[in-house]
Specification:
The complex is a heterodimer.
Chain A lengths: L2 H28 L4 H5 L9 H11 L2 H32 L3 H12 L5 H18 L8 H9 L2 H11 L5 H8 L4 H12 L1 H17 L2 H6 L8 H9 L6 H21 L1 H10 L3
Helix pairs in contact in A: 1-14, 3-14, 4-7, 4-8, 4-11, 9-10, 11-15, 13-14
Chain B lengths: L9 H34 L2 E2 L6 E2 L3 H8 L1 H32 L7 H9 L6 H11 L5 H8 L13 H29 L3 H9 L4 H12 L1 H16 L3 H6 L11 H11 L4 H27 L3
Antiparallel strand pairs in B: 1-2
The chains are: A mainly alpha, B mainly alpha.
Chain lengths: ~270, ~300
């Protein structure tokens, strides 16, 4: 590499890294400052973190929203990876022509934009509300149900099942395990990495989901954290320090998951195009 | 074939077991994707407010073609698409080529930093961008201090700059995401190909256009299709940065559907019609992208 090229490379990548990180730094710094200081463009950490935190906890349903988001995301993730991995495994291990056709049809659902689904889905849950209030509008179940199963996740598990040695299925049968037993006792423990990757992706998208909860959740005690932030951000006289703190708190779980499991996360994304 | 006590052959039984494994998933997708899809199609032939709907044939589709707000949201979405997707893909390609150099120092840091935006929620980063790009926001005060501009840019309230703000925001959020795909694909290219090219005297630019891009074609196709679908569904950013304004200058199709259903007097039938336009566009563009990419094979 010529010297000029090297200087350019580092300058360019440095610039890109700075632009990528800066909004994070700014929101963390702003979370420790008073609203006026944020508008003045103060870029140094201040001493108002605790003050902002107290105000945020008092003036909003922070804890309720966090708890709602946590419940929904964890439950969705567990159900999603169990259902999708059962299906991915089923499609691959018990392969048949008819199942291949069903699989192709499932994949078509990836082309359907959510915008086309949201009105019928909303009407569906509004109708259910009358007879089955537990899964109707404004419930946790109504947020979760349409997001649990995605063709992408089934595809992801099917692709990864290809790496699962088929001999182990035979070995399990000889040992007298049931078909489900083989799945739970052999497949699941062997495919830990695949499960980790799928879990991270699902958790992140569930934690960050906005449009569907916005439509289906109405009462304040059901709101999730993205709805809380969106509400704070649309106020007339926003308290910047407070809002930035809320954003930092909302970003922490996904940022932590990302840093702890970076390798699995990247592996998971790649798994989708393998 | 041997039959056991149930009267089914082993093969048929195993086939049946297989169906039970996929049953829940197939039911869920049918219930929450395909059934609503059909419902939306039926809805699109009805009009009325709230749940008072009656069949009116194709009147919604006629209205669609002369609906100025729809046409504005459509052209906004296409402006985002035509500018943002190529810019982002080229940027992601360029960065990944730079990062692929094994002699480069701090590779891990650069990669993590540029990927970092992907961990934020669309809502959270949108609100941050809204304040960064406010008239008295940090971006303007920095540009003023550096004397790049003399008067503050009306990022959010000027029709032109509001679009630019949305484009900058999406690019910030997704470039790193695409970069990861290219990086992984680049690592699968045998480095001897580049060595041979270098010996033959091919410039970096030639290597990029003659080796890197053709080798990465399937991944580029994949990322451009997913980015296109993502842009056509744009909602969270527009809703939280500009609310579709000023006027309708940043309104996206998804936000228009949302407005039709939940903001104005609910017109579910017409909203369903608008939503089908996205389905049609996604299908057409995906076919087009496959054709363009497939031609030179």
């Amino acid at each position: 590499m010529s010297k000029l090229k090297r200087v350019f490379t580092y300058a360019f990548l440095g610039g890109a890294a700075f632009v990528s990180i800066f909004p994070f730094l700014w929101m963390v710094v702003s979370a420790t400052n008073k609203s006026v200081e944020v508008t003045k463009g103060r870029l140094l950490p201040g001493s108002h973190l605790l003050d902002n935190f107290r105000k945020l906890a008092e003036s909003t349903d922070l804890w309720t929203s966090l708890w709602n988001s946590a419940k929904i995301s964890v439950l969705t993730t567990i159900l999603a990876i169990v259902i999708a991995s059962l299906a991915g495994y089923g499609f691959e291990i018990y392969r048949s022509r008819a199942k291949d056709i069903v699989f192709s049809i499932l994949l078509l659902s990836m082309m359907i934009p959510f915008a086309a689904l949201m009105i019928p889905l909303y009407r569906m849950f509004a109708n259910i509300s009358g007879s089955l209030p537990a899964i109707g509008i404004d419930t946790m179940a109504s947020v979760m149900l349409p997001t649990i199963t995605t063709a992408f996740l089934i595809f992801f598990f099917r692709q990864n099942s290809k790496m699962f040695p088929k001999d182990m299925v035979e070995a399990g049968r000889i040992d007298g395990l049931s078909e489900l037993g083989i799945f739970f006792k052999i497949f699941m423990p062997t495919m830990k990495t695949t499960y980790a990757a799928a879990g991270i992706i699902t958790f992140m998208s569930s934690w960050n989901n906005y449009l569907w909860p916005l439509i289906v959740l109405q009462s304040p005690e059901q709101k999730t954290i993205p709805l809380l932030i969106s509400n704070l951000g649309s106020g007339y006289s926003p308290d910047y320090g407070l809002i930035m703190l809320a954003i930092v708190i909302a970003t922490l779980p996904t940022a932590l998951v990302f840093f702890l499991m970076q390798k699995h996360f990247v592996a998971g994304m790649m798994g989708s195009v393998k | 074939m041997k039959a056991d006590r149930t009267g089914l052959s082993i093969r048929a039984k195993s086939n049946l077991t297989g169906w039970s494994f996929i049953l829940i998933a197939v039911t869920m997708i049918a219930a929450f994707y395909f059934y609503p899809m059909v419902q939306a199609l039926i809805l699109s032939f009805k009009t009325g407010t709230g749940s008072n709907l009656t069949y009116t044939g194709g009147s919604n589709y006629v209205r669609l073609l002369s609906d100025k707000t729809f046409l504005t949201s459509l052209s906004n979405t296409f402006i985002y698409l035509i500018i943002q997707v190529p810019v982002m893909i080229l940027l992601a390609l360029f960065i990944s080529v730079l990062l692929n150099d094994s002699k480069l120092k701090f590779r891990g840091f650069f990669r993590t930093a540029i990927f970092l935006p992907c961990v934020t929620s669309l809502v959270a980063y949108s609100v941050v961008f809204k304040y960064l790009f406010a008239a008295d926001g940090l971006v303007n005060s920095l540009l003023l201090k550096l004397s790049v501009i003399q008067v503050p840019i009306q990022w959010i309230t000027d029709p032109f700059w509001a679009k630019i703000t949305i484009i900058i925001a999406i690019t910030w959020r997704w470039t790193g995401y695409n970069m990861i795909f290219y990086l992984s694909a680049l690592q699968n290219i045998d480095s001897s190909i580049y060595e041979a090219a270098r010996i033959d005297g091919a410039s970096s630019f030639k290597q990029f256009t003659k080796i890197t891009v053709p080798m990465l074609k399937p991944i580029i196709l994949f990322t451009s299709i997913t980015s296109t679908i993502g842009t056509l569904q744009l909602f969270d950013e527009v809703m939280n940065i500009t609310k579709g304004g000023p006027g309708n200058a940043t309104l996206s199709i998804s936000q228009y559907i949302y407005n039709l259903s939940f903001k104005y007097t609910a017109d579910f039938g017409y909203a369903a019609t608008v939503s089908y336009s996205i389905v049609v566009i996604i299908v057409l563009l995906s076919i087009l992208q496959f054709k363009v990419a497939g031609d030179k094979k």
